[in-house]
């Protein structure tokens, strides 16, 4: 089953970045996508800190990430970087733990001062985990998310950025699904033509399938 995993990376109970993540989750669900949330703060702290891969909650979180097609990561900016809580979770992923996945970073910060932290701190980590398809970051300062009695509210410009990101993520997933379908078809065609193909010296079946995908796109 195809789904998006969302990761909330704030240690705070009352959290702006988690609230902004919820907004993005709702926008994704409105586009027909399934979203499954990991609240990093709800993971057992000792298991997280001691990299206890055998702990059921850690296992479940890692498995959820492994099978997701896209990952939305929300973090507060702490000390000019992303939160340590996000880091403890990312550190548990295998080296290619985000390979083939679309990633959307979301962050909130006290001001615009450390906005680039997503590019110089978070993005290199996501890339080193294999993520290649990075959607543009969504950032909101605390002033962009004024507190209300019920929680927070969002300024129009920030809401617009969340909508645009949800559109971009839904579009990217759709394209990925189409490509997968083409690859499956191409592999089927390549297999059906195997006797003739075998006459082509040095051309492997997978190369032929890849060529068919290129032709079809
Ligand atoms: C320990 C700590 C460190 C922070 N460091 C920064 C920082 O370096 N740059 C920044 O823009 N905001 C910083 N902030 C402000 C938070 O990023 C901001 O309030 C954010 O919206 C909090 O998100 P949250 O409510 O999801 O935890 C810091 C806040 C705390 C508590």
UniProtKB/TrEMBL annotation:
This is NADPH-dependent FMN reductase. One of its GO terms (biological process) is alkanesulfonate catabolic process. GO terms for molecular function: FMN reductase [NAD(P)H] activity. Keywords: Flavoprotein, FMN, Oxidoreductase. It comes from Caballeronia choica. Transmembrane segments: none annotated. Residues 4-142 form the NADPH-dependent FMN reductase-like domain. SUPFAM superfamilies: Flavoproteins. The keyword Flavoprotein applies. InterPro entries: Flavoprotein-like_sf (IPR029039), FMN_Rdtase-like_dom (IPR005025), NAD(P)H-dep_FMN_reductase (IPR051814), NADPH-dep_FMN_reduc_SsuE (IPR020048). Belongs to the SsuE family.
């Amino acid at each position: 089953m195809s789904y998006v995993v969302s990761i909330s990376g704030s240690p705070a109970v009352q959290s702006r970045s988690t609230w902004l993540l919820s907004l993005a989750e709702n926008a994704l669900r409105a586009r027909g996508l399934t979203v499954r949330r990991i609240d990093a703060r709800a993971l057992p702290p000792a298991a997280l800190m001691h990299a206890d891969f055998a702990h059921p909650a850690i296992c479940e979180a890692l498995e959820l990430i492994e099978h997701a097609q896209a990952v939305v990561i929300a973090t507060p900016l702490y000390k000019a970087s992303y939160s340590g809580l996000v880091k403890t979770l990312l550190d548990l992923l295998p080296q290619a733990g985000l390979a083939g996945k679309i990633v959307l970073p979301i962050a909130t910060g006290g001001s615009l001062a450390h906005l680039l932290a997503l590019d110089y701190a978070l993005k290199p980590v996501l890339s080193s985990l294999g993520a290649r398809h990075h959607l543009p970051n969504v950032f909101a300062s605390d002033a962009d998310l004024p507190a209300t009695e019920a929680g927070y509210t969002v300024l129009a410009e920030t809401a617009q950025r969340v909508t645009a990101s949800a559109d971009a993520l839904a579009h990217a997933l759709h394209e990925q699904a189409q490509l997968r379908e083409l690859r499956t078809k191409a592999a089927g065609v390549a297999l059906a033509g195997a006797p003739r193909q075998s006459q082509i010296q040095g051309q492997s079946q997978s190369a032929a399938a890849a060529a068919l995908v290129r032709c079809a796109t």
